[in-house]
Amino acid sequence: MAMTSATATAQDLLARQAPIDKKMKAVDTLALRNLIDREQAGSPAAQLYKDWNNRYAHRATELPDSFLINLKDFCMPTTNKVVTSNFGRRWGRMHKGIDVKVYIGDTIRAAFSGKVRIVKYEARGYGNYVVIRHYNGLETIYGHMSKHLVKENQTVKAGDPIGLGGNTGRSTGSHLHFETRLCGVALNPALMFDFRNQDVTGDTYMFRRDTNSRESAQANKLRGKDGSELADASGSKGKSKDRKSASSSAGDVRYHKVRKGETLSSIAKKRGTTVSKLCKLNHITTKMRIRPGQILRYS
After folding, report:
1. Phi, psi of 280, rounded to the nearest 5 degrees
2. What one-character-per-residue DSSP string does 169-193 give?
3. Are the CB atoms for 169 and 146 separated by under 8 Å?
4. Do residues 82 and 227 make contact, with C-beta atoms less than 8 angstroms apart?
5. What's the rounded Cα separation, in Å, for the pair 178 and 161?
6. pLDDT digits (tens, 9 = 90+) for 163-214
7. Are 165 and 78 in contact, with CB atoms under 8 Å apart?
8. What stretch of H or E contains 243?
9. pLDDT tens-digit profile of 150-162?
10. Does position 23 have pLDDT exceeding 70, yes or no?
11. Strand pairing of 185-187 and 161-164?
12. H or E, element range at 29
């Protein structure tokens, strides 16, 4: 009888303690949330952006004369090392990011920690894309994905999966279109990311408005020489020795850009390979239609 009474008393104590525990847990959660809010409010991004909207992928606002961007605690958005198109003028228009060869279904990851601002589909542009605002002041855009893995206003950490590689929107082959923007203005990702070495260019990058254009051009030249190249993606003759050496240094991984009227058979003959090998390297079949501008790996 005494044991039964003691058990009942213990149960009463637990019952009375439960609401207190629940209240303390709520207090702890609120305190943690307030701490996170304070940290984010003091981040460089809070100094640059006055508003948060989910309508525009990018909208240029006033750039600072200079701004130090922290590149620590990064993650490469893809493990693929081949850049098929650089930042700059292309086909008579400005290409405001870089294209990295990925296959449909490859995991695409957040480059830095931050908050997802936009998750949308744009048929004549980015296709399935994601925009993330990072605490270091940058915004990154990931385009042409086959699937979204995040939602708007979701907080992500560097390296979190945000989507899958694809060929959606205005795209002529599976790849990741990757942009880095500051106050809505596109910066050359090569200033900060070295895809060949799967690394950033330093712990920090100092943006200077008056020298950015010149530094951007120099970054393209440097990346071309060190092999995080265009990997012979154009398929045209008369390229420089630097481009050829870049293809060799990349471990004989080479690409062909499809021209109007070309077929798998004609490309195989031109590149000294076979149709079956082209299909195997690019995960396609002989019945699949290839389009002008599409990038195909041939070795």
Report:
1. -65, -45
2. SS-SSSEEEEEEEETTEEE-GGGTE
3. no
4. no
5. 15
6. 999 999 989 889 999 999 999 999 999 999 999 889 998 899 999 988 888 8
7. yes
8. helix 241-249
9. 999 999 999 999 9
10. no
11. unpaired
12. helix 2-41
E strand segments, 114-226: 114-122, 127-134, 138-145, 147-148, 155-156, 161-164, 175-182, 185-187, 193-194, 199-200, 204-208
Q: Give the separation between CA 132 and CA 118, rounded to whole angstroms.
A: 7
CA-nearest of 266, 273, 262 to 299 is: 273
Which contacts (CB < 8 Å, 24+ apart) does range 283-289 have? 283/103, 283/104
DSSP of 30-72, one letter per residue?
Answer: HHHHHHHHHHHHTSHHHHH-S---SS-S----PPPSEEEEE--
pTM for the structure as a whole: 0.64
Helix 241-249 / helix 212-226 crossing angle, nearest 10 deg: 60
Sort 228 into a burial class: Cβ within 10 Å, 0-12 / 13-18 / 19+. buried
Cβ atoms of 254 and 299 closer than 8 Å: yes
CA separation, residue 227 to residues 84, 240, 248 (Å): 11, 13, 8
What residue has token string 């870049």? Answer: 246
Handedness of CA 78, 83, 89, 90 (dihedral sign): negative
Token pair, residue 247, equals: 């293809």
Least Cα distance to 81 among 283, 216, 203, 246 occurs for 246
CA 48 – CA 44 distance, rounded (Å): 7
Condensed to tens digits (0 to 9), the pLDDT of residues 57-95 reads: 998 998 999 999 999 999 999 999 999 988 888 777 788
